[in-house]
């Protein structure tokens, strides 16, 4: 039985690969995709979500969520990493599908799903906080929030020394989720920086020559992240998605996590309590990654996706 998921996302180069992986994985069923402002503005993230859904022939609804953080006005997008349009300049056909109001869509999908829903949040958590505030009893029905965000141990931040982009962009929203009391898996930079992916790791996909291969080749080449010597970069969001498809990819520790949302130097920091001193554990924190297993999953699934989209193979 595929696990029903909602993807909350700010596509975004690595978001795009995560959505492709979800579309290619029979272990999950995408109930809906909800866009949020983050890497680039909502006008682009929503359009990119719709165009990706068209490319991947997804029949699920797509929603437009928050156009900015709950309250902060001192955080900005990441066009220097994802390009002005959010996809490194890659041009997908403009979608004509109607977009729904994102938070009501998310609430409806959770309420109407016959099975408990996993929300995979791979952008800033503004939509998640709005869902919690506007539909608290619905949000409590979520089986688990699997988020790409934060960091601990050897990698705390990529936007400031203390904060990762998704959490830094809206720390108040993140604090709301971590204090809500529903199961959370946190896939932070300490894990995603282990999961570097470059063209050398996707041989089957890139040999397939289909629409997914063409787009992924462009995305990898244009993803100005980490400045690795090769074209390798941390595929943050597809690691979070992969953890839902195959939980054995991650090793996690059950720890207490809260978010600093007022610090002058530390706003957006995920404060992970490895000492067990500040409170009851509320989060499964990714500590280690089976990188070979992750890369194999990505290459095999995305190459199969291309074959299915181009109608080759049986
Ligand atoms: O810090 C990495 C995260 O921020 C990823 O989700 C990336 O897409 C950006 O949203
Ligand atoms: Ca993202």
Automatic annotation (TrEMBL):
Keywords: Glycosidase, Hydrolase. CDD domains: nuc_hydro_IU_UC_XIUA. GO terms for biological process: purine nucleoside catabolic process. InterPro entries: Inosine/uridine_hydrolase_dom, IUNH, Ribo_hydro-like. GO terms for molecular function: purine nucleosidase activity. One of its GO terms (cellular component) is cytosol. The keyword DNA-binding does not apply. Residues 5-295 form the Inosine/uridine-preferring nucleoside hydrolase domain. This is Inosine/uridine-preferring nucleoside hydrolase domain-containing protein.
């Amino acid at each position: 039985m595929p696990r029903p998921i909602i993807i909350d996302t700010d596509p975004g180069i690595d978001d795009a690969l995560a959505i492709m992986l979800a579309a290619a994985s029979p272990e999950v069923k995408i109930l809906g995709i909800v866009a949020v402002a983050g890497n680039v503005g909502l006008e682009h993230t929503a359009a990119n979500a719709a165009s990706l859904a068209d490319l991947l022939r997804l029949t699920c609804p797509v929603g437009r969520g928050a156009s900015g953080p709950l309250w902060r006005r001192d955080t900005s997008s990441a066009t220097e990493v994802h390009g002005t349009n959010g996809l490194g300049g890659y041009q997908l056909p403009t979608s004509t599908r109607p977009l729904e109001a994102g938070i009501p869509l998310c609430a409806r999908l959770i309420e109407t799903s016959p099975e408990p829903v996993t929300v995979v949040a791979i952008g800033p958590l503004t939509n998640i906080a709005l869902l919690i505030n506007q539909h608290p009893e619905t949000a409590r029905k979520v089986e688990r929030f699997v988020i790409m965000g934060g960091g601990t141990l050897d990698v705390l931040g990529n936007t400031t020394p203390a904060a990762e982009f998704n959490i830094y962009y809206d720390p108040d929203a993140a604090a709301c989720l971590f204090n809500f009391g529903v199961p959370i898996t946190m896939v932070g930079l300490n894990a995603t920086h282990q999961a570097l992916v470059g063209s050398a790791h996707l041989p089957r996909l890139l040999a397939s020559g289909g629409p997914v291969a063409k787009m992924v080749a462009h995305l990898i080449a244009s993803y100005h992240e980490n400045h690795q010597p090769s074209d390798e970069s941390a595929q943050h969001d597809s690691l979070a998605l992969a953890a839902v498809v195959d939980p054995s990819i991650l090793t996690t520790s059950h720890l207490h996590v809260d978010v600093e949302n007022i610090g002058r130097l530390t706003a957006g920091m995920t404060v992970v309590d490895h000492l067990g001193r500040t409170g009851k554990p509320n989060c499964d924190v990714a500590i280690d990654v089976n990188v070979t297993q992750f890369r194999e999953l990505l290459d095999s699934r995305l190459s199969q996706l291309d074959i299915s989209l181009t109608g080759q193979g049986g």
